[in-house]
Amino acid sequence: MKNFCRSTAHLLAVFTIVLLSCFDACAQTQDAQVLYHRALAATCANCHGTDGKGIENAGMPIINQLTDKNMLAQLMAFKTGERMGTIMPQLAKGYTDEQLQVIASVLGKK
Ligand code: HEC
Q1: Which of 2, 83, 99, 106 is spaced 20 to 30 Å from 36 by Cα?
Q2: How far is it, in rounded angstroms, from Cα 65 to Cα 49?
């Protein structure tokens, strides 16, 4: 009985450790994903300002008033050539559709 209790306790301990490390791994994966999403959106900051807020007198459109849907539509239009532009058509082609979705969801209004 003593042995049984001990091995049950042992099993429980192992189970708890496995469970905790799973939570930790999940949290880390989520952190990495958030970082990746923010890093993608940050590639736009040179011209459109941090979080798309714009840079004073830079002559670039302020993009943070666009909804995420509208922003994605504009990005896809640049990518497909439906919308003309000087910089954005070339730039948009450098991202996958999934990356543009992520960027629009980070920078666009919900
Ligand atoms: C090198 C400067 C530069 C960078 C970097 C840049 N943009 Fe642009 N963006 C422009 C310019 C210039 C325009 C005006 C259209 C054109 O001439 O290409 C524009 C237009 C836009 C528009 C249309 C705005 C409107 O009111 O319809 C959106 C949306 C946009 N950019 C999103 C982005 C996103 C998202 C990124 C990052 C992936 C990005 N831009 C990176 C320069 C830039």
Answers
A1: 83
A2: 13
CA pair distance 74, 68, nearest whole angstrom: 10
Q: Is 73 in the pocket of ligand 1 (CB under 6 A)?
A: no
- Joined together, the tokens standing for residue 76 give 């896809």
Residue-wise pLDDT tens digits, 58-76: 899 999 999 999 999 999 9
Going by alpha carbons, the residue nearest to atom 37 of ligand 1 is 44
Q: Whose CA is closest to 34, among 100, 108, 105, 109?
A: 105
Phi and psi torsions of 22, nearest 5°: -65, -45
Which of 57, 108, 51, 58 has its CA nearest to residue 87?
A: 58
